[in-house]
Amino acid sequence: MVPATGRFWILAALLLIGLLVPLTGDTFYIKFATRVMIYGMAAVAIDILLGYAGLISLGHAAFFGIGAYAAGMLTNAGVVSAFLTWPLAVAAALLAALVIGALSLRTTGLYFIMITLAFAQMVYYVAQSLRAYGGNDGFSLVSRNTFAGLIDISNPVAFYYLVLVLLVAVVVFAMRAMNAGFGVVLRASRDNSDRLEAVGVPPYPYRLAAFAISGAIAGLAGALLANLNQYVAPQGMLSWQVSAELLVMVIFGAAGTIIGPIIGAAIYLLFAEILSEITQHWMLLFGPLLIARVMLIKDGVYALLLRAVAR
Amino acid sequence: MAPALLLEQAFNGVQFGMMLFLLAVGVTLIFGIMNVINLAHGSMFMLGSYFLMQWIDWTNSYAAGVVLALLGIGVLSLLLERTIIRPLYRHGHLDQVLATFGLVLFFNELVVVLWGRDPLYIAIPSILSGQVRLFEGAAYPAYRLAITAVAALVGVALYFVIAKTRLGMLIRAGAEKRLVVEMMGVDISRIYMLIFALGGVLAGLAGMMTGPLLAVHPGMGEPILVLTLVVVIIGGVGSIRGALIASLLVGVLDTFGRVLLPVVFGTGTGNALSNMTVYILMAAILLWRPRGLFPSHAG
Amino acid sequence: MYGRLCIATFAAAALWSGGAGAQELRLGLLTALSGQLSVAGAEQKRGFDIAVEQLGGKIGGLTTEIIVADDKGDPGEAAQAANRLIDRDKVQIVTGLPFSHTMMASVRPLLNGGAFVVGANAGPSTLAGEGCHPNLFVSSFHNDQWDIAVGEYMSAKGHKRAYFMGMDYQAGWEHTKAAIRGFKGEKVAEVYTPIKQLDFSAELTQLRAANPDAVYVFYFASSAVAFARQYAQAGLLGRIPLYSMGAFSDPTLFPAQGDSVLGVVMSESWNHQLDNPANKRFVEAYRAKFNRDPTGFAARQYDAVMLIDSAVRAVKGNLTDQDALRAAFRKADYQSVRGKFRFNTNHFPIQDITVEEVAKNEKGQLYSKLIGVAINDQMDPDYQKCKMPK
Predict the structure, then answer these.
(1) Which residue, A262, B191, B298, C344, is most buried by CB atoms nearer than 10 A?
(2) DSSP category for residue B48
(3) C119: nearest Cα among C244, C31, C227
(4) CA B161 to mean position of chain CA atoms
(5) What tens digit of pLDDT does each residue of B160-212 get?
(6) Which DSSP symbol is given to C194?
(7) Contact assessment for residue C99 and residue C73, using Cβ atoms and an 8 Å cutoff
(8) Could you give the CA distance from residue C344 to residue C137 in angstroms, rounded to a whole number?
(9) Rounded to the nearest 10 degrees, what angle do helices A259-278 and A240-253 cross at?
């Protein structure tokens, strides 16, 4: 365990960076940072499952996408107020996660990875068959969601701070939940589920709850992304590559730390952005980078940071 | 549907299934015995196609191209096992996913750098370019029959090796109890190398046979990789028999789904359902048997 | 060479995002440079480069900053790339946009950001109807235009029963349904296959059993290669005539398709054999540089740059006067490689639709042989749905 002070300083520094980004005054960077936070939020959602319950989901694109589709469909149907649309989008993702989780959690290990993938693929193909919503092409949102005149999120700075506040809320919530009894049971279910059962605590309901919460958070991130892009499509939101990318962000940053996945998302998107400006063949550099992370850094970039600060 | 048509579609399904089987053998053995998730398996499929194309171009001979491409994939697999995969044995599945995903990205782009983005072409050897009259009214492409036959032969050979040879015995034992094998004084890392190379070569072979059928292009390994994983899961990780049955099941169901579902449910819903067929099948089988059809002890 | 230039441009743009002077044009090329659809994107880029070269790097007589952006063939990436062009690169005009799904995702952010958009390939019907916009010009075609023509041509050839197949997405439905509308005979079947599907064994078995007089398909890039080859392998080539639209087979695909596309008849709005000075100049320049015939993707992108050049020239480089610039675009006062060309009220083309056949020249190489004009001055079916603000 690392001293809490080290973590405190890293968190403080991150929050400071988060608060200061809009001072660049450059819309491009502000929107980019917004995107980083949205993917970071989805990565945190995965980390709750992966880092604490030890469950690898390759199907979180489903909840991400359901959030985005729900937000987009409601908005285009005239439900423009975010006070209605966003909770409904989250509820839709939560419900889907409850159903998919209830079925998937009957399997374990590699089988769990693949059954979550299967369900996500089903959602993907359903979305692709929605001809009224552009099928595979997706559809644009007629407008961004509104906040009864309180905030105007078509202003990039306002949207940025809103996402920042939501991300902080998600992080605080996740950290408290994972440090509380809920998190303790989850970790126990990961490390020794037999013993847990022996003391009379069945792991299944806890795992399901974690899955549902995780799905709901991913759904919120999806609704945010729909508002950022003003566009929703199966390919970039529901495909299994999205699930894989989110997993990569978590592992890159350090699983089981809540903060690590956000750093992972930032590094992943930043590298993709910078490398793709340098060369069309940026994947040629990015692939080995992922391998290097596995071979050289045992447990992710955030863990490396923590160790550096502790020293 | 007329019986002749039904039979012909069954041929299509079996051919697709056998292709999946060639890929699934490697994945299921590498996971079942070595406990490694290898996403780069699809890259071997893709490289098989590209190698064959390149070597036919250089040697002007299909036979020489096939031999050289198989050798090339074999050597590449051995190198990969030595440099990237072996260190991964000590890591968890997540790190394996990350590293082999990195390999996938790398190989996809390497192919673009070496051969460009345009889809490329492998000619079908002229003896196989015609059609065979299976029965009245059905002129079936000879090449598709030939690759089904090759895949079936590989399956039989594999069965023989695993059931009848000392190596097969070690492989079977390795899948169940790694310790037992080590106690027998066998260098398990040798067996791992062999299995990894075998898996790679079979994936490459599938790619080589698929190349002339489809287009050879960057990223062609991913869609088939996902389907292969589905097959392995349905069959039960580590089980070759399971992989065979699951491959044929997926191949035949997918083929008939594509033909029949749009007719029954109309194009919109029917197409959506036919895309989902294999995933619905997998979810249903896992809910019924959470460790696949033929669960083995590993995995 | 442009690759390096584009990095330099990026660096310059990053340092210098303070806003463009009146005497400078910041032109974006948004296209698929990586991913599976990049075959077409690369062709667009080639056509673009030749046009810029011929104009001496000065479009409309202005010093031109060119910013190349990659949509990776993915709608989400396209939306981001569009935002980047607007927010970071401050472009005034954007062209490219090769496919309808990436176009639909990127066109709104570009227009809302105040840029003019000149679509150089995709022509989704919504943008021609209710979704039309004063600053959006699609200089290429409307998705339906080509295929109505090929459908009519199939009827004219005396085919009574035709089988229709296409890719299962918006553009696939639009193209295929247009061909069905143009065809007067009986529709035997209308089949849509998943976009990423490359093995058509099951569909071809069904097709042969149905035994139609003619087949229409909508496929391009890898799927067109796979379909053509499997059609030939199934022994159907030469037995049942195959019809499609121009992207099914072109010089980028000939090497992979080989003889399997010989005799396929396709509709287009351009052909390298069209006899006009602008086309000759383009085709010769292209052949000299790339040692083969150009494709429609390249021709349309070349044409779009020439259109932009004419409009910017007409307003004497004053890009701040958007009304004047729009009027100049509407006039389309330039020499198109298609010969006759003008814009309809919805800013989509009124143009001749040609029919071409894949044939072999005396050296035994494949080429697209121009058969003739199928429809003169064709208008798209959606222009009346467009309420264009004056």
Answers:
(1) A262
(2) H
(3) C31
(4) 18
(5) 888 888 888 877 776 666 667 777 777 788 888 999 999 999 999 999 999 99
(6) -
(7) yes
(8) 10
(9) 110
- The first and second tokens of residue A102, run together, are 């209830």
pLDDT of residue B176: 66
Neighbour tally for C280: CB within 10 Å: 14
Closest-CA distance of chain A to residue B174, Å: 19
Partner C contacted by A26 (CB < 8 A): yes
Q: Minimal Cα–Cα distance from C252 to chain B, Å?
A: 7
What contacts C142, CB < 8 A, 6 or more positions away? C123, C125, C128, C348, C349, C380, C381, C382
Task: Supply the pLDDT for residue B85.
Answer: 93
Compute the distance between CA of residue B236 and CA of residue B286 in angstroms, rounded to an integer. Answer: 10
pTM: 0.90
Nearest residue, CB atoms, A137 vs list C3, C70, C100: C100
A61-85 burial: b if 16+ Cβ within 10 Å, else e: bbbbbbbbbbbbbbbbeebbebeeb
Please choose, from the candidates B276, B293, B284, the residue with its C-alpha nearest in 3D space to the C-alpha of residue B233: B293
Which tokens is C31 given? 């296209």
The per-residue pLDDT string of chain C (390 residues; one tens digit each, 9 = 90 and over) reads: 333 344 444 444 444 444 444 579 999 999 998 877 888 999 999 999 999 999 999 999 999 999 999 998 888 889 889 999 999 999 999 999 999 889 999 999 999 999 999 999 999 998 999 999 999 999 999 989 999 999 999 999 999 999 999 999 888 999 999 999 999 999 999 999 988 889 999 999 999 999 999 999 999 988 999 999 999 999 999 999 999 999 999 999 998 899 999 999 999 999 999 999 999 999 999 999 999 999 999 999 999 999 999 999 999 989 999 999 999 999 999 999 999 899 999 999 999 999 999 999 999 999 999 999 999 999 999 999 999 876
Torsion of CA C201, C204, C208, C211, to 10 degrees: 170
Q: Using CA atoms, how far apart are residues C44 and C65, in angstroms rounded to an integer?
A: 18
CB spacing of C76 vs A140 below 8 angstroms:
no
Report the distance separating Cα C65 and Cα C296, nearest Å: 25
Pairwise CA distance, residues B215 & B227, whole Å: 18
> Which one-letter DSSP state was computed for residue C30?
E
User: Across chain B, how many H-helices and E-strands are there?
Assistant: 12, 2
- Which long-range contacts does B137-142 make (Cβ < 8 Å, 24+ apart)? B137/B4, B138/B4, B138/B5, B138/B7, B138/B8, B139/C208, B139/C234, B139/C235, B140/B8, B140/B11, B141/C230, B141/C233, B141/C234, B141/C235
> Cβ contacts of residue B67 below 8 Å, gap of 6+?
none
Chains contacting C (3+ CB pairs below 8 angstroms): A, B
Task: Enumerate the residues of chain B whose CB falls inside 8 A of the CB of residue C35.
Answer: 219
| Token representation of residue A256 | 């089981």
Cβ-based contacts of A288 with chain B (< 8 Å): 102, 106
Give the residue on A whose Cα is nearest the Cα of B276. Answer: A122
Q: C137 and C329 in contact (C-beta within 8 Å)? A: yes
- Chain C residues with CB under 8 Å of A139 CB are 104
Token pair, residue A270, equals 């930043």
Cite the beta strand spans of B45-175 per DSSP E. Answer: 131-135, 138-141
A279: exposed, middle or buried (Cβ count in 10 Å: 0-12, 13-18, 19+): middle
**Subunits that touch chain A (at least 3 Cβ pairs < 8 angstroms)?**
B, C
**C390 or A203, which is more confident:** A203
Mean pLDDT value of segment A102-129: 93
- Kind of pairing, strands C116-119 and C93-96? parallel
Give the per-residue pLDDT at A24.
87
Other C-beta atoms lying within 10 Å of the C-beta of residue A146 = 17
Single-letter amino acid, residue B194:
L
